[in-house]
Amino acid sequence: MNASGIPYRRLSAFYFFYFASLGVLMPYWSLYLKSLDFDAQAIGELVAIVPATKIIAPYLWGWIADRSRHPLWVVRLTSLFAAVSFAGVFFGSDFWWLALVLFMFSVFWNSALPVFEATTLNHLGDSAHSYSSVRLWGSLGFILLVVLLGERVEVTGIEGVPVVMLIMLTTIFAVSIFVPERLNRVNEEQGSIMHVIRQPGVLAFLLVCFLLLLSHGPYYTFYSIYLEDQGYSRSLIGLLWAVGVMAEIVVFLLMFRLLPQFGARRLLLLALSLTALRWSLIGFFVDNLAVLFVAQLFHAFSFGMFHAVSISLVHRFFRGRHQGRGQALYASISFGAGGAVGSMISGLLWDRIDHASLFSLAALTALIAAAIVWRFIYPDRV
């Protein structure tokens, strides 16, 4: 712990290994499922289970954390059960068994991060603008695993992905033990949480979060398969994923300056507009590596900038004992409902329409979200 009393290293370590596990799951899990001979619809359904559990599970555990006022115990418990549940992948590979395992695993895995986000912001206190400096270690963990594992599966095959994932999950639990507790500030209570949610600006913000992650459906579910079908190697696919997260890190390093200077509304509009451009580039120029590289750089905006602004707004909207549920609600609506619906729709349409058209629909969804921001979101009025 440093002189200010903020345990930066321990907070950063949790993000590092949590997003390292995401670096295993996101680029390579669909390829692993493909190696088990599942078709596109089955892959879409299995992938959709992970974000689908975010709709309810994080909010439930966030409520428990807020009520108990011991959020780190919730983080440790969910991290442990996530590792134990995921171990079930080694005992079967048929559709319904994997569906059950992924459901149990993701109920716990998805619940740990929102509660930890609230804990991190409580530790940072008046230094909440430094959130991005802590969160960027998660991006570094993602990059390290996605690149190393890409090279590994290129040589040994995709079969080792579950083993690496289980190692990461076990490490997440181990790291969480060493993070000190930090309680929220009760005197910042602001009435019922529904009073906050019903405000027009908050409702519009949550809808925008849903639409943005909905637009990510083709990317998160089929990007690796899309590139492999075009003849790209798995190591190059991993590198392209890593390029996106490298760009994300740059934005995280700059957000403490960008947010006060330009404000949340302008940055959301920029992020959503460039997200639409990104999906269009991927859809129409998949055979051009240089264009794909540029499109991956836009991950700095479609995720990095959007997420940093969103965390800031959630922290502003949901204060006191609402913090855990506020962060969980953001995760539930965006990465949960939005991600699940996006994966399901992508799985249904992947073999039925051309891929450029599907990414065009994703781009249109991001533009609709930008229009909602333009019309309804003025954070200072909420």
Helix-strand makeup class: mainly alpha
* Strand/helix succession: HHHHHHHHHHHHHHH
Q: Looking at the structure, what is the overall shape?
A: globular
Give the distance, in angstroms, between the N- and C-terminal Cα atoms.
35 Å
- Class, according to the CATH hierarchy? Mainly Alpha
Runs in which pLDDT lies below 50 for 5 or more consecutive residues are none
Predict the CATH topology: Growth Hormone, Chain: A
State the share of residues found in helices, binned by percent: over 70%
How many structural units, i.e. domains?
Answer: 1
Number of H/I helices: 15
Counting DSSP E segments of at least 2 residues, the number of strands comes to 0
**Rg of Cα set:** 19 Å
Tell me the CATH architecture. Answer: Up-down Bundle
CATH superfamily: MFS general substrate transporter like domains
Strand content: under 5%
Largest sheet: none
Instruction: Average the pLDDT over all residues and give the rounded result.
Output: 87
